[in-house]
Amino acid sequence: MEVGQMVNGTTVTEFILLGFGVGPRERFLLLIFFAILYVVTLAENLTIIILVVLDTHLSRLPMYILLSNFSLLEIGYVSTTVPRLIFDLTSSQGVISFTDCFLQFYLLFSLGTSEDLLLSSMALDRYLAICHPLRYPQIMSPDFCIALVIVCWGLGFMAYIIPVTMISKLSFCGPNIIDHFLCDAETVLALACPPLGVTPYVCQMFLNTFILSVVVFIVVSYGTVIVTLMKPSFKGSRRKAFSTISFHLIVVTLFYGSIAAIYICPEGENQVEVTKAITLFYTSITPFLNPMIYCLRNDQVKEALGRLRRRKVSLLGRNMTI
Fold first, then answer.
1. Would you tell me how many other CB atoms lie within 10 Å of the CB of residue 103?
2. Which pTM does this prediction carry?
3. Three-state secondary-structure class, residue 183
4. Cα 253 to the chain's mean position, in Å?
5. Of 210, 257, 219, 248, whose CA–CA distance to 109 is shortest?
């Protein structure tokens, strides 16, 4: 990646992230808050991953294979933003190198894209399980599910190579101050010197096309599921099925609602403080909330935790006997 060339022959080697623009006392309180939030988020998502890996029942279910990878993505997603945010709160400088800024930008969008694809895969899983229950075991086999996960990760990390490369090739002639707590397409593009060429349009096209296509797929999938559940033949199992998909819909609404507010709705584009708050919500708060939404009232997860606890007690008892 080339460092952005400036018009006077020098180069931009770093950017300055302004962050939240608060005093020392507020910075300290935010530092404590985000440190605790980060540790708890890691613990929650790691618990889900470990539980799925160790429990022989959950590890064979497609939904939990997808869910464990979703938790892994959440760990990567929150680790791309929060540690940097915590580091910047310890100093008033907020300096980030050109390379680190673009690396954060690339990882943030790649992990977010993989997360989008995984959410659509979960929608597909629920659609097949409810609308085509007889064919579900054959279609959503463990091998197919793993292949689906690989595609989600692979496409996610390939999708934004072109936009990030195009932006990194632009000239940056100053100022180098970013009024945000992270690097993303909009904030970095705002510092680029004209002519920008087609780069802003390509980036917007990639972003809007991808988000809209995934959202349409998810809406159609869950819409079909809801219509199917309203049929008389599902009267007995309707409540349980609605309970399951309601958690999925909450996660989807939180994620896409916040993203849409920034990148699609025109009124969110020029409101810096609102943009920071919304970005903070979907990069830091939702990875903390999602494990609780998916698993807090999930009977299968509770049963798996019980089996793991009994296994641990059994092993401890055996070791004490020996």
1. 16
2. 0.86
3. coil
4. 13
5. 210
